[in-house]
Amino acid sequence: MKKANNSTTAPAMLLSACLLAGTACSTTQPGTTAETATTEQITEATVKANAAQPQPPVASKKPKELTAHGHTRTDNYYWMNERENPEVIAYLNAENEYTKQVMADTEALQEKLFNEIVGRIKQTDESVPYKKNGFFYYTRFEAGKEYPIYARKKGSLDAKEEIMVNANERAEGKSYYAAAGMNVSPDNRLVAFGEDTVSRRQYTIRFKDLQTGELLPDRIPNTTGGAVWANDNKTVFYTMKDPSLRSFKIFRHTLGTPTSQDKEVYHEADETFSTFVYKTKSEKYIIIGSSSTLSQEYRFLDAANPTATLKVIQPRERGLEYGVDHFGDSFYIRTNKDGATNFKLMKTPVGKTTKENWKEVIPHRADTYLEGTEIFKDYLVLQERQNGLTQLRVKKWNDPKTDYYVDFGEEAYTAGISVNPDFDSKVLRYVYSSLTTPSSTFDYNMETKQKTLLKEQEVVGDFDKNNYEAKRIYATAKDGTKIPVSLVYRKGLKLDGNNPTLQYAYGSYGISMNPGFSSVRLSLLDRGFVYAIAHIRGGQEMGRQWYEDGKLMKKKNTFTDFIDVSEYLIQQGYTNPDKLFAQGGSAGGLLIGAVANMRPDLYEGMHAAVPFVDVITTMLDTSIPLTTGEFDEWGNPANKDAYDYMLSYSPYDNVEAKDYPNMLVTTGLHDSQVQYFEPAKWVAKLRELKTDDNLLLFQTNMEAGHGGASGRFQPYRETALQYAFFLKLAGINE
After folding, report:
1. Which residues are catalytic?
2. pTM
3. Is 145 in a helix, a strand, or coil?
4. Residue 550: pLDDT over 90
5. 485 and 533 in contact (C-beta within 8 Å)?
């Protein structure tokens, strides 16, 4: 299921993929083995189908009683959590085969969609280089290759290229590969990087000598992938994961020594917190943080003295959230202290860090959410959100009158601070896009207010952004709340209620779904689709309160907001229930599952990617990765009030005998966030109870995890399947 921590706050169940009568295998009672099917029997019984009408697999029912608070639930498919059980693997393979059979008539369309999507991507491409410590760093791709090349040039962009890590070479012979980190030592000689070859987000850290090209023997397994260098060029700090994949310990490693000798410098014993480590932009301090949904705590030490004792900045308090950076002789603290719901910026001397010493720099504002900051020697940049849109505000340290906003010139867009490692720079690098404008990287001179477009994402082919129109509308929720909706479609749209429409949302962890550009999405827009992003409560588009009103005992607002947006799109003539589709992934998959139970009549089809649908069982099982850190998001079902409320919307627990829309459910066998068995059980129960003849397809990537297939192009095979599903239902064959 869940969220991954980073070096500031840790909001996030990472957004994952784009996110449903046959011969029963067997039905056995607990404790019996006589009717347990073999793999061969399952495959025979579930995959066999005639060419005219493929028959879906039907999973074995093995009732297991689960009791809490005097309430007993019977889970017929609990057995599916046994990843190594041949019966489970056979069932997943049978579902994959059934999906392949049902979608066989779209194979040519899927191939066309895949080639279309990949064909828009510039094959030979590279990121905009950024300068750090005398080197220009960038990532580039070579034509036909799946993985990036991480490279740099010394002093000038005309200098000779140094390849740090070629992920294509590292990925050879592996079904999955992901690199992380790419942290270079202060003397520019060594690079530390993480490698995951399973898709469980458990990285092994490796080190490479960039002068000799030698891969050092040091190997640190089971980490988050990042290594933070002390200023001695031989000591790194890293984060270790526990069996549930929670980041729980920070270690110090000295190059050339066995990892068995690594020193544990911090242990986060509270299972509701995760820990992480980073270095301040000033390069002066190593910061170790601990974070839960509602509280953070930070420690620091001098980066020049890596064996020094850690000092606590401010002890944790429930409800006190804060993040830390450094400038001059002060720590700068973004915090919600004293009821600052939308956060404010404060500072405190390095020698006096507890909250009674914090002094206000940027006050709290009820109408403006402070998302983040970027500190320069002469300037402070604030990333703020107002009326659902991000703004960048520039202030000069020694001139309070220098306070202005960067002008973006569009009504609906997304913008954000990019990579700015140079402390002394007067130039801010930011990224910008809109639903019609491809992702663009700008350098903005904060002194002259001149902006320079460094790169706009190239869309290969005949793309012309003037062919598309973006719009921001507001749907009214049942309680009167105005819900923003971002729309994009080809110009010339008629509001005749007859447009196929894909409605997408997430709505959890305070993660805002920004209206950004997607070249992939053009394959739907060019076939007449309207694409709608519903900015529902549970995100943070309209400020922190927007998040507070969509979690815990207010979680149902997320689902009803989505439904209210759907009804509004229908009322306004954009679409109708026979042409409206819904999509969400991870926590957004929970949204899709809940809405499917609440208003199945509103949608022709739904796609739920890596969906978190078995809410109660998962949240009661603290051995499942990251569960304990989620209690402040969903509630702790060990408490009866939370149990009852969560039970009232949990998609798996609320499946019943009625008609459901056409459904496509996708997952990954090795998913570290939402375990594969949640959607597997959900689909099995839907198959058992639903009363319609609509499609129910279940696709498991047997080699991938939460983010789907690895590589630059292969993930689009899955996208092509999803789009073909929508187009098939919409009656669009071309």
Report:
1. 586, 671, 706
2. 0.81
3. coil
4. yes
5. yes
